[in-house]
Design brief:
alpha+beta, 3 domains, eleven-stranded mixed sheet, 14 helices
């Protein structure tokens, strides 16, 4: 808690973000460089994200399990492109119980290998398929440049791993999970995303195809918010994941993996936040409402607190997440600013005059000042609050979509392209050449974020080399 103003987003977006994460008590730095401590307020947000995803996973037949943190180093080395992709990021354990280990153990950077080993034992027949397993865990990747939530050595996530009898089923699963991520982002986080396919240079190490949802942050940069990988038969062949088909023939399985991590919290902060702090989407907010009783004397306190407790009980009964701020020694103004900085979607102010009138003041976080305030009767307040929370949820999505659309450009030439990626997204034809992709990155610091699944406009010419191009891709600078 602090009265100091945050840096403005236009002045220093990065420092605004860093200070906000700390001051809103979402996370803190850990003693180990690059690691983070997720504080209760940040963990409550993550719990709501996990609940929104877990509900969707189970509705599509997935079940949760847990696999070990430590993986034999030889497992990682069995899938060639996988080890090449992850080798620089591995944390390796060489001593256990005071003695040097016969085989080094890798702290999981992801679990395809250990799960592939298990699936090879569990899957014997087509009757065992599909296998649809997810796990909630943390992984370690030895990142050199770190930022709270966006990129840390250890981060929390879910990783789904499935095995199928056919290539078609594997692709359908990969796309289904991408759709689930997109649906959660839009409906629960109020974040518009672009689902698309990654280039070969940007795909997951060991995948045939990687799909991702890409979102625009408040400074125009892109953030990869979730990924879904069609692994083909690469891991099945490396780990002998095979099954007997209906004709008695031994076949390799087709596998997928998909994940969304605590970096999604960074997306919520950067998409919706303003110069006053966080703005939480109501469906995911740890507290949807903060109730602030206001009184100056013990004589005023009794009726105000009695009315406040009644309102709180009604909101709780309506499944609305509410926090009543009963802190002593802090002015109402301080409390208002503090909860605005923490992004609670709706504030209820209740003073002696409100009690006398049988009313309360509702203040929307997404509309600061008088514009966002309204007076409502205390009777039936839960209905009024529910409706307003739904309005705020939609308003946040609409605002984020407007921001993205107004900062997405379709440049006519490479000169316009370079200007576009300084401001936001460039949607441009791309020939598919890794050479063009690398040169664009070296020249502009923009990467090919994805080839959107929804295409319009037909064939054209590559924005860089002028060769024939079938698809338009999104290019942007990214986190």
């Amino acid at each position: 808690m602090s009265d100091l103003k945050l840096p403005s987003r236009s002045e220093d977006f990065s420092e605004w973000y860093n200070q906000l994460v700390l001051r809103a008590e979402l996370a803190d730095y850990a003693p180990v460089r690059g690691c983070m401590i997720v504080r209760p307020y940040g963990w409550a947000l993550w719990e709501n994200i996990t609940a929104a995803l877990d509900r969707r996973f189970k509705a599509t037949g997935h079940v949760n399990a847990a696999f070990p943190l430590l993986i034999p180093k030889s497992f990682i080395e069995r899938e060639k492109s996988h080890v090449e992709g992850f080798a620089p990021e591995l944390a390796v354990v060489t001593i256990g119980g005071g003695e040097k280990l016969e085989e080094p153990l890798v702290i999981r950077p992801t679990s395809e290998t250990i799960i592939g080993h298990a699936y090879a034992k569990w899957i014997q027949s087509y009757r065992d398929l599909p296998v649809l397993i997810n796990q909630w865990n943390s992984v370690v990747r030895w990142e050199l440049r770190t930022k709270l939530f966006l990129r840390t050595l250890e981060f929390f996530w879910q990783e789904g791993h499935t095995a199928h009898a056919t290539a078609e089923e594997g692709e359908a699963e990969t796309r289904q999970m991408l759709d689930i991520y997109a649906d959660m982002a839009v409906r629960d986080a109020a974040i518009p995303v672009i689902p698309g396919r990654k280039s070969d240079s940007e795909k997951f190490a060991g995948a045939d195809i990687t799909y991702a949802i890409e979102a625009m942050m408040g400074d125009g940069k892109a953030l990869q918010a979730g990924t879904s990988h069609n692994l083909g038969q690469n891991f099945a062949k490396a780990f002998e994941i095979r099954y007997l088909d209906k004709n008695g023939q031994l076949q390799f399985c087709w596998t997928t993996s998909w994940g969304l991590s605590t970096r999604f919290i960074g997306a919520i902060i950067m998409v919706h936040g303003d110069d006053q702090g966080l703005i939480m989407p109501p469906r995911l907010a740890p507290f949807q409402v903060v109730l602030v009783p206001i009184f100056k004397s013990d004589e005023e306190k009794t009726p105000v607190m009695e009315a406040a407790r009644k309102i709180r009980s009604e909101l709780v009964a309506a499944d609305i997440r509410v926090k009543m701020d009963e802190r002593e020694g802090f002015s109402p103004g301080f409390k208002f600013n503090d909860w605005e900085m923490r992004g609670v979607p709706l504030r209820i102010e209740l003073g002696p005059k409100d009690v006398a009138k049988g009313s309360a003041v509702l203040a929307r976080r997404d509309r600061p000042g008088k514009e966002g305030k309204s007076f409502v009767p205390q009777a039936g307040i839960a209905d009024a609050v529910s409706k307003l929370l739904a309005e705020i949820q939609q308003a946040l999505y609409d605002r984020a979509l407007k921001t993205r659309e107004s900062n997405t450009f379709e440049p006519k030439d490479y000169g316009e392209f370079k200007t576009a990626v300084e401001r936001g997204f460039a949607r441009s034809h791309w020939c598919g050449s890794a050479d063009c992709e690398a040169k664009i990155k070296a020249d502009t610091k923009a990467t090919m974020r994805c080839i959107p699944l929804e295409q319009s406009g037909g064939d054209g010419k590559c924005i860089f080399c002028g060769q024939a191009a079938k698809d338009k891709a999104i290019f942007a600078r990214a986190y």
